[in-house]
Structures are given as C-alpha cells and as structure tokens.
Design a protein that fits this description.
InterPro entries: LeuE-type. The chain is mainly α. It has 9 helices and no strands.
Length: about 210
Amino acid sequence: MMESIYTWSMLLSITSFAFATAMTPGPNNFMLLSSGLTFGYKKTLAHILGVMVGFPIMILAVGLGMGSVFEMYPVLYDVIKVVGIAYLLWMAWKIATSSSTIRNSDEVKKPFTFFQAVLFQWVNPKAWVMVITVMGSFITSTKHAFLQVFIIAFIYLCIGLLSTNFWALGGVYLQKFISHEKSIKLFNMSMAVLIVLSVVPFILKG
C-alpha cells in the first residue's frame, strides 16, 4: 500500500527535506532559542508544542483545500507575506528590548502560548515557502494526494518534535554561560538581528 503512495526513496527524500528545513535557522528556531534562554524549558514548552503542531496543521489546511483559494486569489499570499514580515520585525523589536532579568521578574512580557505559536506559522514567511515547496515537490499523485498530504504532515510532526526541542534546549543550555544581565541582553539583541536578517530574502523577492 505504501509503495503505491510513496516509494521508500521518496519518503527518504521528504524526510531529508523536512529535517533540513526544520533544523536550519529561521524565525521559529531563533525565537525558541531566545525563549529557552530567557524563560527556561518549562515555560517554553507551550511554544515548542505550538510550532511542532502548528506547521503540520498548516500543511494539512493548504494541502486539503486552502491551496486552491490562493490559486484563485494570489494577492492573498502577498497580503500574508507583508503581514508576516511586519509581525516578524515587531517580534524582533520585542526580543531586542526584552528584559534581561525576565525569569526573575513579574513583568507583563511572557513566552508564546500554544495558540500564539500555532497562529504564528501563518504569518511566518519561511513557513509559507516551505509549504509551497513541499506541496509542489512531493504531491506526486492526484489519486493519493490526500494521503500524501497526511504523510508529509506526519513527517513534519516527527521532525518538529526533534527540531523545536533542539533549539529550545539549546537556549536552556546557554543559561550556563549567559547569566549576566548584559550578556542576556546582548544575546537577545543578536537573536533579533538574526530574525530581521531571515526576513531580508523575502523582502528582496518583492
């Protein structure tokens, strides 16, 4: 049955693509790294789960029908891209100006909730590029399209479990080396700059 939907070599290709795109630097991973350092693992867990589940949900939504809406109204993609870039720039500013003593304070600023992280995928330019690329590259059969979409989403769910925890725990690990207020502040500013730089290619594409 599986061979009629995907060959094993195709499954390996999808898994390799998912691993490369999920593990490499991008807005989600930079924000998880910063959150792990600033808030610790326990308070970042909702953010982790939101990213891990949110992107496969996005794949399912686009693959099972929403993609046709964007084909009918291409301007929607441009609107989402502009909103996404603006939101990422705002998030970069929030991270850059966040308190370096946030873990020990009662400030209003809090880590992402599960639903915030899920919704963030829809305004994340990198997520849209990933969805469009994976749909165009790995949906190979109209007969088995629905099953292929579910398989791709499941693969990203599994890879997401690894990638989100890797980056968040990376931030937690850095707590051993970055504990002074100025160091945390500098780190958060660096993450903000990297988020801005990750947006530049999407801006240049126009």
